[in-house]
């Protein structure tokens, strides 16, 4: 296993945000993490990144505990989310140069140019981040996340602010990265069609707990409790949310 | 601690200084404005006949040195605030960057900024008021070191408080040094203070620095006592600041505050 999440729990006072979550990720796999807002997805990702200390349980990446091997693990993984930002006065190039230094990327400028081309934002190179649209910002975040050719990529709703065409391009790019580099990807999204196409397995969270995990079709069977020929994650998601509201 | 990560922090804040007018103003504008204001005041004082001849040097020297202390502690805190305002904390700390690498980078940048401010203020003091701090620099350096070390310690504590209480307390970056100024005896000797405040004043490395500086300007030579008292106090405050920051940063991670900082 590349990632092992064992009985991960996070309590904030009397509120339990993540409650005994366990799952594993195999090398080269794209795994989706789904769940309604407040299900514990982002808190789980933040614990995987060592940004939040778990109340119980452990995260092991490349066989090491993130709490004790933070530096070497974070050197080989990366993360992006449209909900975090960059210093807005700095240009796209300046921001990426700073992060390339943080990850000690060799031939920084060449690598950055290559990524800007890859994400179709080469023309934004010298533009201050404050003048970018949210979609452009998301693509800069994705370029940052690819700087160190990560072995593990954590993508928290990376297509949330993108129009369907760019979202499709980003999805195709991520699948290409996984195919060509063998990058392992943990992906959260509210776009169920995207998750069905990309992810070989899914961990479904609700109220901080794993309520189902498996392939998209297995998740569909487990939650809808009926036989289907095709995965129906949209329906699964709506069922979970409606049950949550009625409870 | 990895040099390339410390360099990344330095580069990040150099870009910021180049593109952010506020940072330029902090670095040059205020030290220059202070020396111009106090310089005119010393011109007025020179017109009287009852002044000690070294008073002008006391005042201008104090303005320049207090400027160093104030700028350093403020810029340490503002460096952290820049990341908060930019919502960049998660990006930074989900990278291999360690918090002490970040602080080391910030210290390096702030040393350069303070040196620029000091050079500008000193040049104006020479040109406009015929006060040259440079010949005294060798004797002043140990006291400047004490001022900077104390500013580090305060900057580290302030940064810890920012991590814990976020931008709600950002005004402390500019206001915290204010109450320290009267008890640090920047412009007057410690005997001017009421006795109850003298005990407090002696506990501040800044007081020892300014007392030491005045002794040099009065021709009394370098005061080893004030220097070593300053070093001793700074060692205690520095150790306390590091312990406090480590504790509050771990607590912020535990409470999930690091990801809520924006």
Give a verbal description of the structure.
The complex is a heterodimer of chains A (247) and B (262). Chain A has 247 residues and is α/β, with parallel strands linked by helices. Chain A has helices at 41-48, 70-75, 92-102, 108-118, 134-146, 164-181, 192-198, 216-224, 233-246; strands at residues 3-12, 15-25, 30-34, 56-61, 64-65, 77-80, 152-156, 184-188, 201-206, 209-214. In chain A, α8 runs parallel beside α9. Chain A starts with a strand and ends with a helix. Chain B has 262 residues and is mainly alpha-helical. In chain B, α1 crosses α2 (21-46), α3 packs parallel to α6 (137-165) and α3 packs antiparallel against α10. The radius of gyration of chain B is 19 Å and the shape is globular. The two termini of chain B are 26 Å apart. The relative contact order of chain B is 0.13.
Keywords:
heterodimer, A: 247 residues, alpha/beta, six-stranded mixed β-sheet, four-stranded antiparallel β-sheet, 39% helix, B: 262 residues, mainly alpha, 11 helices, globular
Q: Assess the beta-strand content of chain B as a share of residues.
A: under 5%
Pair with the biggest interface = A-B, 36 and 33 residues
Decide which structural class fits the backbone of chain A: alpha/beta
Contiguous helical run count of chain A: 9
Shape of chain A: globular
Report on the biggest sheet of chain A: 6 strands, mixed
Distance between the termini of chain B: 26 Å
Low-pLDDT residue intervals, each spanning 5 or more residues of chain B: none
Rg of chain A computed from alpha carbons, rounded to a whole number of angstroms = 18 Å
Oligomer: heterodimer
Number of strands of chain B: 0
The arrangement of helices and strands of chain A along the chain is: EEEHEEHEHHHEHEHEEHH
Summarize this, please?
The complex is a heterodimer of chains A (247) and B (262). Helices cover 39% and strands 24% of the residues of chain A.
